[in-house]
Structures are given as C-alpha cells and as structure tokens.
Design brief:
Blueprint (H helix, E strand, L loop, with lengths): L9 E3 L2 E3 L3 E3 L16 H10 L5 E7 L10 E2 L6 E2 L3 H8 L5 E6 L11 H4 L2 H21 L3 E5 L5 H6 L14 H4 L1 H14 L4 E7 L10 H11 L5 E5 L9 H4 L11 H10 L4 E3 L5 H9 L5 E4 L1 H5 L3 H6 L14 H8 L29 E5 L3 H12 L3 E5 L9 H4 L6 H15 L4 E4 L6 H7 L3 E4 L3 E3 L11 E3 L13 E5 L3 H12 L3 E6 L12 H13 L3 E4 L1 E6 L3 E6 L4 E5 L2 E4 L3 E3 L2 H6 L5 E4 L10 H13 L2
Parallel strand pairs: 3-4, 3-12, 4-7, 7-8, 8-9, 9-10, 10-11, 11-12, 13-14, 13-16, 14-15, 16-27, 18-25, 19-20, 19-25, 20-21
Antiparallel strand pairs: 1-2, 5-6, 17-26, 22-23, 23-24
C-alpha cells in the first residue's frame, strides 16, 4: 500500500483512530435547515463523512446558548437548534468516522484581546465554566472528541500571551501563572467529558509577528498542559492578523507542510501524540508520519477538493483524487467575506444539498463540448457522470487550454497537479468521445446533430497597439514557464493575479521588474483571494519588485515603456521587455456562427464572460452540464 504509515491505527486517549488523518475544523457558513426542506450543513458533512478519515472536526463555534435565538447554538459558524446536534453527530459518524467539535467561547472570539487583563476574576471563572458547559453538551450530543482552540489568538492563547495579559492576580505575571487559565479550563472540560471521550488541543507553535508568543514559550506551555490532553494539534499564526493569514492557510506559492518542523519538536519533547495542520495532503502526511515527525495530520482543503480522498487512497485509487490547488477560495469566502464555503476545483462544496449526483439526468442527451480548457473538461466529466453522450472537440493536439500557462511557473506545482488530473480523468473516461486536432466548424457540428452545444473556446488577450516598437512587447502567456525569454529589465503592464505572479517568477529568475497599473496602490489585488494576495504582495516586496500605480501604458520604444500619469505627463521606464497582462476578451465568434445548430447553445468559461479564475471556469462548466 502506498500510504502504509497513514493507515496504521493510532491510540488517542481512550479512542483508537482507524488511520492517521483528521479533517481539520473549518467554518462553512452553512445553515442547518432551509425553508424548502434542504439541509445544507448536514449535506456538507455527509460528504466529508464519506472521506474515510479517522476523525471529522466540526468547525470553530460555540455550544453555549445563543442569546439572539433561544434554544439555539452556533457550531461551525451557523445557527442550529440544540436538539438537532445529535443528528449532526450521527451524520459525522457515517461510515465509521469519529466526531469531534472545536470549541471556543464566542463572546471572546472577536474584539479587543487586551480586555482579558481587565475582566474580574469572577468573569475568568465564568469563561472556564462556559468551556465546561460546552463539553457537557458535546458529550450529551454524542461527540467522541473535543478540540479546544487554544491557538490563533483564541482565549487560552490570550491568557498565556505576555504582550496581552498584564494581570497582577493568579492568572497573570509569570509563565506559570499565565498558564493557569488553560490548566483550570482543561480540568473543568475533562470533568464534564466523561471517560469515553478524547481531548485535543490546538496550539500556535508561534504567533509569528515580532513581540508575540515565541516557539520556545509555546513549547514550555505545551509541557505544562500535556498531562491534561490526549493530542496536540500544531498550527501557527494569529487569526485576526492579516499578515499571518498565509501562515495559517498556506497558498500555492508556499511549500506544503511548513508546520512540520515545529510539530517535530513538540513530538520530541512531549509524551502524547502530535498532529499537524497547514498545507497537508496525503503525500506530505505520509512522509512526515514515516519520518516520525508527527503521529497524525489534519487537513481540510484537501478534503474539500475531494471528500473521498482517504477512501480512494485506501482502495489504491489515489490517482483519482482531485488535487487541491491551495488557491484559498474556500477560506477567502468564509474568513474574509463570511459567506458560504465554495471550492475552486470541486463545484459541489457548499452546494451538496442542491444536487443528487447519484441520479442520472432525466433524459440522456447528445452533448458536444467545444474546447478542452478547465471549463470544457469539467463540463465533459459532469455531463458523462449524468449519463449524457459526450463528444469533446479540441482544435489543438493537447487539453488544458490557458490553464497550462497558469500552471507553468515553478511555484504553481499544485495547479499543475490539478491540470494533470483534469486532463487524465477526461482522457481515460471511455464515456467521453475525445477528438483532438478537431476544429468545431458549423459543418461538423451540424453533422454531429447535438441536443446541446457547450462552447468553451476561451478568450483572447487584450493587446494594445504600440506604434513605435511593438516587438519589445510580449503577451504574458508567452513567458509562462519561460522567464528566460525576457530581458534583464522588465515592465509588467497589469497588476492582476496573472501579472503579479509573472512579476514574481521573473524576479525570482534574476530580472529587475516594475509593475504598472491604472489602479491606485491600495486597490492592487483587491478583487483576488485576500489570503493568497497578502503572501504574494509580501513576496514581491521581498523580491524587489517596484510598483508604479495610476499610470497607463502608452507605447513601447527601443528604450523602454512609455506611460502616462493622471495629470497627462508622460514618463519613460527603461526596460528590455514589456510584458502585457491586461486581461482578456471572450471569443464570441463561434457562438454567432452556431446559433440554431442545437436546441441548447451555452457559452461557458472565459468565452461566456464568467471566467477569469479557475473557480469560475469549473463552476461554469459544472453548472452548464447539470442544467442539461
């Protein structure tokens, strides 16, 4: 078996995990019950319960009484009736998973953290009692484990942090006194749990920013609490500090498993099992467990990309696992926007209650899909799964479309893995009639007699007319994966994700890079995934990339790029290459020619005007195929 270490059982307190994978807690922002009878949160966890993981942790929340809604609680950042908790636990228990719940005290999750210095000791006791009360409710609901969120700046971390806690009583001062809150709270929780449950503790190995809690301080704290917990869950960073969000949720640019070196030290120093989170997938987990760095691995984005990931691995079908691209669409929506979770590569996430993928379409149709980019590939898979007869036409000899360009940079390995998976699953699907090197002419389409025609022919780059020296300018796509084609000094026109990623790639290959854009500096990246953009901007700064904002590219000369400022003045930016990353225009030509050739003609992806990101392309392809 490829993942022999992962599939070894693990003793955690009184429990035995069937393998070494836990699904990390996350807040999906889904409702328990809709007016039409759908149950989005239950459907979401039903999918995860089929993962094959050992444990599913219900995301951060509170099982206290919600003062806004009598008889309601707030698990996983949703509101549900207290009496529905056992049904939710039954959902988590599906297919043999253990059920865990991550707890905090909701009234202290947000707001000024230094207030813990000024609250009276009676309120400290009330907070401890609130944890214990929630533990009892978790036990009564049937949960197998409790995960205390003591990291990311949550309440226990606030009490321990010397830069926050300035109390002069028994809960402040020395490290031992600052640990007292956690020790008393864990005792109180343990007393309410009963003997059959296990207790997990999530911790930030370090809080990363200058002046915050250090790794050595956290190690000493962990040694003090280890006898009161069954498993230590290692993370890093602070949830309410934007600068550390990419540490909590590593984007594609960062190597996987960045918390493993920290977890290894905890495992060496403690006498309890250690789990690690952040950018983990099965391969990274297997390596870390085999090496003895950790006992288990926690992951959520990998599970969202493919909720059956562990079960597929155990069955020897690991090649079928849909890879996570770590774009952070999921956490960007929930943490940054407080809206329903979605996934860029799995269009069912957050919408499980809307579709029953176990049932075929009411009638099988002859579906012709034109274009083998990410939207076309997703449409082909989905239509085949629904029982339609699928013909996929691609005018070139390869699949992937412009996603090939987006996956070309060295730091886009996750995107490349998804691209390879997407192509392979279509190429190997015998239900899909794949025709490469085939142009979709009106004559061919008329001959194929489709019931539905899905156009996924992409978009073309916006290339401005540069009168003086147009040969100095190059479209960004021509440099993807080939930074050596650029000169030593480069001006990148366009500060969207594509332009910024190209700027970073060029800078990492020794080029002097300036990025120009019409937007003001504070608007750069505002429309992208915030967590990933935080890291990307920091990396660009470290790489020495210069920004010149609120300017327009006017021309390219032998000397460089000519830009105009808002006041009308012009400036020459000396460079050897001008990289054009100014967006795209949908290819509409085919759409006009094929109207009437099928009862249904739908444009998807970039050519439909709803593209621009992998998330939009995949969702567009899926939605169009589902609607057939």
């Amino acid at each position: 078996m490829k993942y022999s270490a992962i599939f070894q059982p693990l003793a955690v307190g009184p429990l035995t995990w069937r393998n070494r994978i836990e699904i990390a807690p996350a807040a999906p922002f889904l409702t328990w019950r809709e007016e039409d009878g759908r149950m989005p949160l239950k459907s979401y966890y039903t999918a995860l319960a089929g993962s094959g993981a050992a444990l599913i942790n219900l995301g951060i929340g509170s099982l206290e009484d919600d003062p806004r809604f009598p008889g309601m609680v707030r698990p996983a950042c949703c509101v549900m009736k207290l009496e529905d908790l056992p049904e939710l636990v039954d959902t988590l228990h599906r297919d043999g998973c253990l059920a865990g719940v991550e707890l905090t005290v909701s009234r202290y999750m947000m707001g000024p953290r230094d207030r813990i210095t000024s609250i009276p000791e009676s309120e400290v006791k009330n907070i401890i009692a609130a944890y214990a009360f929630q533990a009892r409710r978790a036990r009564e609901a049937g949960f197998d484990m409790i995960l205390i969120h003591g990291g990311h700046g949550n309440v226990p971390a606030q009490f321990f942090a010397s830069y926050i806690n300035h109390r002069t009583d028994a809960y402040g001062g020395s490290p031992e006194k600052r640990s007292r809150f956690a020790l008393e709270m864990l005792d109180a929780v343990r007393n309410e749990m009963g003997s059959g449950m296990a207790l997990e503790y999530r911790i930030s190995a370090e809080e990363v920013l200058p002046g915050t809690t250090t790794f050595e301080e956290t190690l000493a704290f962990a040694e003090r609490i280890q006898d009161k917990i069954d498993l230590l869950h290692v993370s890093r960073g602070l949830l309410e500090e934007d600068a550390t969000l990419p540490v909590l949720n590593s984007p594609v640019y960062v190597p996987r498993g960045t918390n493993i070196p920290y977890a290894r030290v905890f495992r060496e120093r403690l006498n309890i099992p250690v789990s690690v989170v952040c950018g983990m997938d099965l391969d990274t987990a297997e390596q870390a467990i085999q090496a003895g760095d950790v006992d288990a691995a926690a992951m959520i984005r990998t599970a969202l990309a493919d909720p059956s990931f562990v079960a597929k691995a155990k069955a020897g079908r690991e090649a079928e696992i849909r890879p996570c691209v770590r774009c952070n669409t999921c956490i960007g929506r929930t943490h940054s926007d407080h809206i329903t979770v979605r996934c860029a590569v799995n269009p069912l996430v957050g919408r499980e209650s809307l579709f029953d993928m176990t049932k075929p379409a009411a009638a099988s149709k002859r579906v012709v899909i034109v274009g083998g980019g990410p939207a076309g590939l997703e449409a082909a898979r989905t239509a085949a799964d629904r029982g339609h007869q699928v013909i996929l036409l691609e005018k070139s000899g390869i699949l992937g479309g412009t996603l090939r360009l987006a996956a070309a940079a060295d730091f886009k390995a996750d995107m490349k893995r998804y691209l390879d998976w997407s192509i392979r699953t279509v190429e190997e699907d015998r239900r899909i009639d794949l025709r490469l090197n085939t142009e979709a002419t009106p004559e061919l389409l008329r001959e194929l007699r489709p019931d539905a025609l899905l156009l996924a022919v992409g978009a073309g780059p916006i290339i401005p007319k540069l009168a003086t020296c147009p040969e100095k300018a190059v479209w960004v796509g021509e440099l993807e994966g080939a930074p050596e084609k650029a000169g030593r000094r480069v001006v990148v026109a366009g500060a969207g994700f594509t332009g910024l990623e190209m700027a970073l790639d060029l800078a990492q290959h020794g080029r002097e890079v300036t990025v120009i854009d019409l937007l003001p500096a504070e608007r750069i990246g505002a429309d992208g995934v915030a967590i990933s953009m935080i890291w990307l901007k920091a990396a660009l700064k470290e790489a020495g990339v210069r920004f010149l904002c609120q300017v327009r590219l006017e021309d390219a000369t032998a000397e460089g790029a000519v830009v105009s400022h808002e006041d009308g003045t012009k400036e020459l930016l000396p460079c050897d290459t001008v990289v054009l990353s100014l967006g795209v225009r949908p290819n509409r030509g085919l759409e006009e020619k094929v109207q009437g050739l099928a009862p249904q003609v739908v444009s998807i992806g970039d050519c439909g005007g709803s593209g621009g990101t992998l998330f939009k392309a995949v969702a567009g392809g899926f939605d169009a195929a589902i609607a057939l």
